[in-house]
Amino acid sequence: MKIAIVGGGPGGLYFAALMKQLDPAHEITVWERNAPDDTFGFGVVFSDETLGGIENADPEFADAMARRFARWTDIDIHYRGRSHTIGGQGFAAMSRKDLLRLLQERCRKLGVSVHYSTLTPPVDELSASYDLVVGADGLNSQVRAARADVFRPSLDRRHNRYMWLGTDRVFEAFQFFVRQTEWGTMQVHGYPYSETGSTFIVEMHEDVWRRAGFDDTEETEFPPGASDERAVERVRGLFAEELAGHQVFANNSKWLNFTTVRNERWHHGNLVLVGDAAHTAHFSIGSGTKLAMEDSLALAACLHEHPDIERALTAYEAERRPVVESTQRAAQASLEWFENIGMYVHQEPTQFCFNLLTRSRRITYDNLRTRDQEFADRVDAAFATSQGLAEVAPAMFQPFRLGELELKNRVIVSPMDMYSAVDGVPGDFHLVHLGSKAMGGAGLVMTEMVCVSPDARITPGCTGLWTEEQRDSWARIVSFVHDRSTARIGLQLGHSGRKGSTRLMWEGMDDPLPDGNWETVGPSPLPYGPGSAVPREVTRADMDRITADFVAAARRGAEAGFDLLELHCAHGYLLSSFLSPVANHRTDEYGGSLQNRLRFPLEVFDAVRAVWPAGRPMIVRISATDWVPDGNTEHDAVGIARAFVAHGADAIDVSSGQVTRDEDPAYGRSYQTPFADRIRHEVTAATGTAVIAVGAIASYDDVNSILLAGRADLCALGRTHLYDPHWTLHAAAEQDYRGAASEWPVQYRAGSRKPPTSRTDAVRPRLSLLRADDSDQNVHLRWTPPREPATVT
């Protein structure tokens, strides 16, 4: 093959070296606009997975890298004047300059032609003259720009400012310096990369950056390669304590905003993108160089394995895109955490450290316990102390007081519509469904959305509370839960609004009934989506009638014995659609500003609160974002939550979306938790109001991690309980927890021990037994440079 590579950074050079080894007959040319020694940046961090792939592909190059690594396992977090160390992480870093020299030498030996200080020929010319053109030209990729109509890039410029610096202070481990200044929170990410230096990245929110006066050079145009020396000098003074008398060095160091790059496609014809040209991930979870070299390895392998370019490039993108998108989700969570770090500086030090370490959701409580058990024990103890609890136990099995209601643990079975009622009456199915979940160990079991009138239903199979027959059937279910378990049971009340009069879920979710069974209403005559019925705009008389329906249903719910009531103001149902500017286009006092959009939902809340027994909590579920442009965002959610708290809500249940069919959610594990986190720290921390996290929380490890980091007070899980009705009890068994928070029904106690398997019964080799106590000896490994620095040949 005849291959053109645009960009002589690590990704481009590594790909060239790999392809030459696979077939020396490949004719490979690299263009790099900078000189060979124009290396920007300081250190590069690699993961074990990346290093394993490099070692398999090119042992000689991997060995040369390994001789230059700084290795350590500790993270030091400097917070509130103290240093907190967490071990067992595992890092390997090296100088970016050394890495480039090794790759340049490798390419020379293999016969790759590299043109330095040379502008690349036009992309059209390269595409016509070469079999393959690889865009490895970074964030400002010329290849990507030349085919923007095909690659369709999106560039998300973030809110923090950062500057990449170096220091001759050789850190012993990864360092997070968190500084409270008169202008706000600033942080430093630091790590060693050689015997002589460390990377020193200074980062802060743009608001802090401006208050601190760093914007005085904002309009300055620096020459290529030049640094913002005024800012560097200020950094030297501000972080003199962290530098401990050592120097800070600049290398093309200027204030930057991180830009997250995504592309709808990574290849077209014989053009393909790798590394930052295709995607970026925030430096707080790893190195862009690492991702670029992983891309290059996968691309070389796919080209070697497939007989033609198109199939090879398709296979490359299919292999790498899921990995990169997962990394970008984690990176997004991490960068947003650092953008919002000011929310967390009130936290107790151990919780703050745990919160920082688990910010991306890739590291969890169980990960940390495996790596550093002593730190995990400190986290558990600190959580118990902060909650005023005497017993140290897994966070999910710590009791919680919601208003005057005592919950034995912090697990909630989330409301899940079952579409199995007849004329709104819950039957035996609902008794078994909710009864089994209550016996399965959760602290609180929630009903599905119970509708307040026949025309408030989503489907003909939805349950209701507009008759005494329905009330009495619910009372039977409530009595079973109270008599047969130690769980509490909550009632969710709602009105379908414009999402009503639709088929049962398994017949066509959100599809209208064929005969348009009943009239739907909404704040404005806007359908939920294409094909949905156009609702009638509610009048003042309608609002009075609907409010009266909520009040009557709440009275019946209290008579049925429910322990808690949740008002459903989420998921695009009637009250949610009033809150959303996507669904509410009214021009009267119930539309327009957020204050006006809140008016009717708050009227309903106040009316229901007035008749709901004072000793029983009342909570609200909201959609924290609509996931569409011009819809509600997490900032609106803060205002919505604040309003309901001011009106007496005992908890805010934080969900998101389902307000319009046009939504584009950023799905992922625990993807809605950041919204709960923001509301908890910005709204409820001062009032003591509880926050409930919900949404793709799939494991007890996720639950414990969310609670221990202070992102929520309770966790609601839905599909997890459909998969395993006894999920909470099984989670206790997995964690070797026994106590009142997970008491097995007497009839089931014989099954409270996990059944043995061939693996659990296996006899471990004696050598493993003899060496079992050595497993924690390398939990805390610090970087100690060798006496003789390694040289680059």
Describe this structure in words.
With 793 residues, this protein is of the alpha/beta class. The chain is built from 27 helices and 29 strands. The strands form six sheets. Strands 5, 6, 10, 11, 12, 13, 14 and 15 form an eight-stranded mixed sheet that branches. The protein has an eight-stranded parallel beta barrel with strand order 20-21-22-25-26-27-28-29, surrounded by seven helices. Strand 28 (690-694), helix 24 (700-708) and strand 29 form a beta-alpha-beta unit. Helix 14 packs across helix 15 (373-386), helix 16 (428-439) packs parallel to helix 17 (468-484) and helix 17 crosses helix 19. This is Bifunctional salicylyl-CoA 5-hydroxylase/oxidoreductase. Residues 396-732 form the NADH:flavin oxidoreductase/NADH oxidase N-terminal domain. InterPro entries: Aldolase_TIM, FAD-bd, FAD/NAD-bd_sf, OxRdtase_FMN_N, YqjM-like. Residues 126-328 form the FAD-binding domain.
